[in-house]
């Protein structure tokens, strides 16, 4: 029973982290889609009323926000805390009659430590520092996104504009804490275990702001994305698991960009050359998000376009076996020009080292897997490297996770490239 309970708690912790990562990476897009669908459907009046209210409320993120104690005390944040785990250690008394500016370092990739300590009550900030209300400063652009802005303000997030921090530090009566991740987004690109890098030479305005309001900046808590290994400080320490799912995602986001003319965004894999023979090596990948397309299709059920969704689901039921029966490839999609640009970005090459008779079936093994299999996708799911020209008469079918074919619309998109489920039914169909 204890082992079973431990596994259950671990599942809850993983779910808590996944929902937070989803909120960080995709919730803003989902909120925009929901508002757009509302404006295009029968609920358009609610959408218009919200936009009118949004215009009148536009100054709230710079005026202390709109925090919700209920959201900050959600049980999911305690599971989120226990996943790493994260702890808050009090090393000094803070007078609640003053306002404070906390300098949080290092920034990390996802600012997990700052969020857990200052945007939730998982580590008991209000119990540890009674009378103080923390506000984590966030890039102003996030507060221009409808619905999403209201959700993040519930946790105490406010705009990182100078006027926003000045508002908190100038409040009469004290008790306000503005928390700033000092290094900013550029420092996030340098986050890695075992090293600390602080970008502050051209970012010292927060010190001047604190002094103008009669306070000096106070130290904050380390973030797990850049926490040193053994021997790191224990006070205000946030420790991350070396092989956790979030840590692996952070590693994927580390790599700094390369200069123009080939800029590299942090969320993309680093530009790397691949020398490829019949089997392909590659890392990373870019694709349409299956859950997002499924959500859009579901939302259409509540608009005037609901007949299209109903017809699609009926057709989907009849077409459910197609992925395991060879799929439905489309040469036009495989020959899109965008795949040539994807090939040139890394670059990716396919080198023919042996003749393959087209009257046989083959199983190619691609190694290493990489994070998102860009090498395999570019060579076998597209004509970016000219597979059909080098191996005429052979039709490649890339085997991917079965789970991806349960997402409506997205499954059809995958099949256009000749992709099949990697199960015991899908692979034999590709060899038949």
TrEMBL record:
UniProtKB keywords: Acyltransferase, Endoplasmic reticulum, Lipid biosynthesis, Lipid metabolism, Membrane, Transferase, Transmembrane, Transmembrane helix
UniProt EC number: 2.3.1.-
Top-level taxonomic group: Eukaryota
InterPro entries to which the protein is assigned, alphabetical: DAGAT
GO molecular function: diacylglycerol O-acyltransferase activity
Membrane association type: Multi-pass membrane protein
Cellular compartments per GO CC: endoplasmic reticulum membrane
Record field: transmembrane: 292-318
Composition skew (Low complexity), residue ranges: 223-237
Region annotation Disordered: where it falls in the sequence: 211-241
Stated family: Belongs to the diacylglycerol acyltransferase family.
PANTHER family: ACYLTRANSFERASE, DIACYLGLYCEROL O-ACYLTRANSFERASE
Protein name per its UniProtKB record: Acyltransferase
Organism of derivation: Phyllostomus discolor (pale spear-nosed bat)
């Amino acid at each position: 029973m204890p082992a079973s309970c431990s596994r259950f708690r671990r599942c809850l912790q993983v779910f808590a982290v996944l929902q937070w990562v989803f909120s960080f990476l995709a919730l803003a897009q989902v909120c925009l889609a929901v508002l757009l669908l509302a404006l295009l459907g029968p609920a358009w009046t609610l959408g218009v009323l919200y936009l009118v209210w949004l215009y009148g409320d536009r100054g709230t993120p710079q005026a202390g926000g709109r925090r919700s104690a209920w959201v900050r005390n959600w049980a999911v944040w305690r599971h989120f805390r226990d996943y790493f785990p994260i702890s808050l250690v009090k090393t000094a008394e803070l007078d609640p009659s003053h306002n404070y500016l906390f300098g949080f370092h290092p920034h990390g990739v996802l600012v997990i430590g700052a969020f857990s300590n200052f945007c939730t009550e998982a580590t008991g900030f209000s119990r540890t520092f009674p009378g103080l209300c923390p506000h984590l400063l966030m890039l102003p652009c996030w507060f221009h996104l409808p619905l999403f802005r209201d959700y993040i303000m519930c946790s105490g997030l406010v705009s990182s504009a100078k006027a926003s921090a000045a508002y908190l530090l100038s409040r009469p009566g004290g008790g306000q804490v503005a928390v700033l991740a000092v290094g900013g987004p550029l420092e996030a690109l340098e986050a890695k275990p075992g090293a600390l890098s602080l970008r502050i030479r051209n970012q010292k305005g927060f010190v001047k702001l604190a002094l103008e309001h009669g306070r000096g900046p106070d130290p904050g808590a380390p973030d797990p994305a850049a926490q040193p290994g053994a021997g790191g400080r224990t006070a205000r320490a946030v420790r991350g698991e070396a092989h956790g799912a979030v840590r692996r995602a952070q590693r994927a986001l580390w790599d700094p960009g390369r200069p123009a003319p080939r800029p590299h965004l942090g969320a993309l894999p680093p530009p790397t050359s691949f020398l490829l023979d019949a089997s392909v090596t590659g890392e990373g990948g870019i694709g349409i998000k299956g859950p997002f397309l499924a959500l859009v299709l579901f939302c259409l059920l509540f608009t005037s376009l609901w007949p299209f969704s109903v017809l699609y689901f009926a057709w989907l039921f009849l077409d459910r076996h197609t992925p395991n029966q060879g799929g439905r490839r489309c040469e036009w999609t495989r020959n899109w020009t965008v795949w040539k640009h994807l090939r040139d970005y890394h670059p990716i090459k396919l080198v023919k080292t042996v003749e393959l008779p087209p009257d046989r079936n083959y199983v190619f093994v691609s190694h290493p897997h990489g994070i998102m299999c860009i090498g395999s996708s570019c060579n076998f799911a597209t004509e970016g490297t000219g597979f059909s020209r080098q191996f005429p008469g052979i039709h490649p079918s890339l085997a991917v996770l079965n789970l991806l074919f349960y997402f409506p619309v997205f499954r059809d998109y995958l099949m256009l490239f000749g992709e099949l489920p990697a199960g015991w039914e899908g692979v034999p169909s590709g060899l038949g």
